[in-house]
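Notes from hallway chat w/ T.B., transcribed later so I don't forget. T.B. wanted the structure written out for a chain they're using in a teaching module, and asked if we could keep both sequence and structure tokens in one place. Agreed to drop them here.
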Amino acid sequence: MAILVGRWDCSTCGNKAILGPKTQCPNCGASRPEDVRFYLPDDAEVVTIEEQLKEAKAGVDWVCGHCSSHNKALQLSCNSCGNPRDELSEDVDLGEKTYELHEVPKDALIPYDPPPRKRKANPATKWLIALIFLVGIFIFFSQLPKDINVTVSGFKWERTVQMAHYEPVQREEWELPRDAYDVSSYRAIHHYDQVFRGYETRYRNVRVQVGEERYVCGKRDKGNGYFEEVYCTRPIYEKRRESYEEAVYDKVPVYREKYRFTVMEWVEKRSYLLRSQGADHHPFWPSQTYPDPANWREGKKNATYIAIVTDPKGITHEESFSLQDWDRLAINQPLEATQSWLFGTYFGLK
């Protein structure tokens, strides 16, 4: 486990990269700052001298509670004011800190990242923003509604009835209905079964753990100007090719009797749709005479009722109504509607 020499910067005179174990600045004599930040440059020296190794392993340095001077772990009294190290003195241990490799500090202070200067707005940008603002105001006011009177000038209506016919329909099914006729059958695949055939030898690549290795995963600030490497372990894997037996199945078709037949059903077709329409105020449902009325029946009914209204500019518009409201309308009857305040775009009835 390698021991490395850290560094610290003097906050009094600005002297930088002072050897971590030194408790005083060699330039101005000031003690290390109380909140000293030890850091580890990329070219940090590895400790090999026995005395330095003992000093690094002796423990964290401490700060005198009376004069704020830094002292080594084994010192029992402050080297500056002579005050003994005890609980009453409120001495403070620097403490150890463990960093992951990407967290290890490389300098004493976090680099200052000045905020980006505010660029002066481009005059063209200002004009564009102003134009967008004005267009927005223009659109807003152009869509404001304005009340107008319209008059009923005409009517339109349409009614449809979907008819269903009872007729023969050809089907193919696995089961035969009771009322089927013109029946024929044939053999067809109903489904497939998975039938076990045996085992086949296959090969695959697998990862096998063959051991472990130690690696440097961090650095520990010893709290005395030294750093030591922190080790972790991780498994070592090898890729190996191995054989295995895999069950093999055959896809076997299962045949059954399938029936082709004719059956009578109610059928709705597009050609069976009846329609009536008109441009008056007298709607009626469409009807038709069939030679075999017992084989026809009514299905879904739909209806549309429209009133044609004319605005003050003489432009006509179509409005949909329910039958109950449509019946109450009359030619030249006034109704309230809205249009855009600026352009006069017709919005609809109120």
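Follow-up for T.B.: Confidence is low (pLDDT under 50) at residues 110-115. Might be a good example for the class.
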